[in-house]
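Q: Please design a sequence for this.
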């Protein structure tokens, strides 16, 4: 038995470095995740059906996402807005002694130095819907201030049964210029778009919604006024001298037969105050979502720049404020809400050299460019990954004699 040596360093079957390239596709659905552990479908981990060995590359092959996103939401920080009232209409200046109008003037004067804050409904708007939402919310916020003033002053409490609502604000959309026009029938107003309020929202959202910490105050998407067409400069209403200052000349503005005159003074001696936004409205929301992929080590392969922000870093250096290998795929959003979009045109891919030995579990994350997570709500989505594998093969050499049948084929 000593002649049989079974302890050899040489393998029984030599590795001939023969590999067969193979493409393997894996379909992943968001509803397949552990919903108890990962309630948010924008970030979750999932176990793949098998071990994928000798992975040469990974690519996003195709996808299907619901277009149910909220352009305006608390997470996006664009549902709150400020305004103030100035040059408040005083009925006494025009010989009007109506007790209700005088009480309203007293209430507005008492709150003259305070900001009026209103919040719009979360969701997606068309321009006409946004006009009505803004008009009603602005009037409602003033109505609340007036009623609170009446309640706190015994002299004015009886007027609570008479006063219904403040309705001086009018908002109209110019469908030709694609700009919003804000007006008041009797008093001047301003939008303090440079207020620190819009910066503080970002801090609050980071604490409550766990926004990506790299999100910084920037000159884009800084608040609701940005989407409405305002800049970061304060907007002060102009006092109209004549109807032609604010009239829409292309046709009717708000109702049939108004001939483009969308606002008129409400009281004797009152003047119309108006503001037209500097820029067009922007209600489309983000144009892309970004996918991050991790299998224990990052699979991201796309470098990404960050939105410019006015900070100590940008003021003292010319270096870029981007990130290397920030995302795995950049997915366009080609449609508006209440629909589903499908696509399969994705060029970037993760390449391994040498091939990755084993991949079994993936961590997936979907976000926008500013770092906020995509809010899919209760809607499911699906995507497919393409794995390029190198499968090792056993070399097989076949020898045939000259008289064999196989040799006759040559």
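A: Design:
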């Amino acid at each position: 038995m000593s002649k049989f040596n079974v302890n050899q360093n040489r393998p029984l079957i030599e590795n001939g470095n023969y590999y067969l390239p193979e493409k393997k596709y894996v379909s992943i659905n968001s509803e397949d995740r552990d919903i108890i552990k990962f309630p948010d479908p924008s970030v979750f981990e999932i176990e793949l059906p098998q071990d994928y060995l000798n992975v040469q590359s990974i690519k996003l092959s195709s996808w299907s996402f619901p277009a149910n996103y909220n352009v305006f939401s608390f997470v996006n920080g664009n549902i709150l807005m400020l305004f103030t009232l100035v040059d408040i209409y005083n009925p006494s200046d025009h010989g009007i002694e109506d007790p209700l109008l005088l009480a309203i003037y007293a209430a507005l004067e008492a709150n003259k130095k305070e900001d009026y804050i209103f919040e719009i409904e979360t969701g997606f708007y068309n321009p006409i819907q946004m006009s009505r939402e803004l008009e009603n919310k602005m009037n409602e916020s003033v109505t609340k201030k007036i009623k609170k003033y009446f309640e706190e002053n015994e002299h004015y409490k009886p007027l609570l049964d008479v006063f219904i609502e403040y309705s001086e604000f009018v908002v109209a959309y110019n469908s030709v210029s694609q700009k919003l026009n804000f007006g008041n029938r009797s008093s001047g107003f301003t939008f303090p778009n440079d207020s620190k309020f819009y910066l503080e929202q970002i801090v609050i959202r980071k604490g409550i919604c766990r926004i990506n910490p790299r999100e910084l105050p920037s000159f884009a998407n800084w608040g609701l006024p940005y989407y409405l067409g305002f800049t970061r400069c304060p907007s002060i209403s102009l006092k109209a001298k004549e109807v032609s200052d604010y009239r829409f000349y292309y046709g009717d503005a708000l109702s049939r037969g108004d001939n483009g005159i969308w606002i008129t003074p409400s009281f004797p001696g009152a003047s119309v105050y108006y503001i037209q936004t500097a820029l067009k409205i922007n209600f489309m929301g983000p144009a892309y979502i970004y996918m991050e992929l991790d299998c224990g080590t990052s699979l991201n392969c796309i470098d990404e720049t960050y939105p410019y922000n006015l900070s100590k870093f940008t003021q003292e250096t010319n270096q870029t404020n981007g990130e290397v290998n920030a995302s795995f795929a950049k997915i366009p959003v080609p449609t508006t809400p209440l629909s589903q979009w499908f696509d399969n045109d994705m060029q970037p891919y993760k390449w391994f050299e040498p091939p990755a030995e084993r991949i079994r579990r993936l961590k997936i994350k979907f976000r926008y460019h500013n770092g906020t997570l995509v809010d899919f709500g209760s809607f499911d989505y699906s995507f497919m990954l393409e794995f390029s594998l190198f499968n090792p093969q056993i070399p097989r050499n076949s020898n045939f004699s000259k008289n064999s049948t196989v040799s006759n084929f040559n």
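Q: Thanks. Anything notable?
A: The chain has two domains: 18-69+286-393, 80-276. DSSP finds five helices and 17 strands in the chain.
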